[in-house]
Amino acid sequence: MATIRQLSPETVNRIAAGEVIERPASVVKELVENAIDAGAREIDVVTAAGGLALIRVTDDGHGMDAGNLALSVERHATSKLDESDLFDIRTLGFRGEALPSIGSIAELTIASRASGSNDAFEITIERGDKRPLRPTALNQGTRISVRGLFSATPARLKFLKSERAENTATGEVVKRLAMAHPGVGFTLTTGERAGLRLPAVAPTPEGLLQRLGRIMGSEFLGDALAVRGERDGVVVRGFAGLPTLNRPDQAQQYLFVNGRPVKDRLIIGALRGAYGDLVPRGRHPLVALFVELDPRDVDVNVHPAKSEVRFRDSGRVRSVMIGAVGSALAEAGHRASVSGGVATIDTMLAGVAQTTGRQPATSWPPSPGRTSSSPPSYISPGFAEAMQAPFHALDQPSGDTGAARDDPPPDHLDRPLGAARAQLHETYIVAQTRGSVIIVDQHAAHERLVYERLKAMLANGGVARQGLLIPVVVDVGDDEATALSENVAELTELGLVVEPFGQGAVAVREVPALLGNGDVKGLVKDLAAGILADGESHVLVDRLEAIASRMACHGSVRAGRRLTPVEMNALLRDMENVPYSGQCNHGRPTYVELKLSDIERLFSRR
Question: CATH number of the domain at 205-331, out of 3.30.230.10, 2.120.10.10, 3.40.50.1820, 1.10.1670.10?
């Protein structure tokens, strides 16, 4: 018969360490959270050998006196938890076993000086062996050093990754905490170089965006939309990127709950609901959302590393998130990512480099050491002649340039999308504003306009239909005909009236009035294929919107169609007044904006 015995405190601490300390980044997270809870305004993190040789976190917080310092390394000792209410957690950390657990598997040294005290003290725990307190020299705050991590549990070392991977994980931890607390300055040094320097910023929306831009990139800084929503005690704020700014993964989607960085599947579903069809399938928007609610309505202790939370009413939180992000996207109107224009300029620069056989200068615009009047180094003396010839290829414009023959109304130049000046290749509209050139994909833009009108009609009771004088018979195949017949009600609600017409065929009797003289056969075949591909996985509303999207694609102005100046300007004005017109139904941008200043730099005018 097996004998039950109580484990030694050292073994208990090592077991607790296995739950809390997965890798060096876990130690950094615990120590930095403690520093933030202590009111630190500057936090310095130093690691060596990926954090295995050294982790040192120094802060200027409140510090600890001798009594509190000695008690801080005891199990289940904390200043962050009110025993009268275990769910009222208003700090980042309260797991009392974190410091003793670290001390049980490494050499832990804590030096601290309390606010207003002239004395500083230091304590060391070496693999569970606690040493007595001793005086030391230190400014106000706390310095914690961890050396030889996992030296007492060498089996854990085989599960760690490369030094570079561990440094990356540590950097991600510091970045997330820095995003959640912009009023705190952070410095991260890995090895011998400073990998991250984030000065403290004002605790305002502008300051928060500045901090987010430093971490998420300058593209996000230019394309971020302010998000704000509140209902039933749940507040959601932060920033969401324009739909045209997206990534192939979810690495740039951040969620913070009461100042705590968390990873939660809630944000995935909420963003999918908010962005809907604005982002291409397989792509993910960039967002940083901060949720604030009563601490009693969220359980932060469902994961040993405190990286997950559980909401008492997750549906309410999700609803507020969807509403806040959706409102921000709707208010953005026709805006598209500024990165489109930047990418266009970069492409032009690459073309210039290929033409001249030289690489572009590494600095663009010109560096302070070079005058704005001097040409870039990659422009050769024969470049101008090469670019001027031959002119015979330009005597016949590829599109109707009638818009350029008359001066546009002055107010059009002040509009966001400007005044139409030309149509190129019967596909692209070139417009002019006071300070930029706009290039519009006419098919993509009109596709979004038709789609939004279809959705508006659908929400208001149905889509207006027009009957066909002669029904159009479409041969689609047996499976496709069956799929269309099973969705007759949804198609009728969207203005498309079809009925079976023999084997493998359907007859179309009415079409949505918005589609005009569109390609009815192409539309029906595309709808049938789409319904078969989607199956029954979508709810009714999703299926209706998917069908409406395909209808809009077939009913919009096609590439290759010449437009009159009046039609081009009407399309631009509609884009300005219809939400989400900055991207088509497939999530691609409908226009790019080239700033005049960038074009002038391209030609060495600046």
Answer: 3.30.230.10
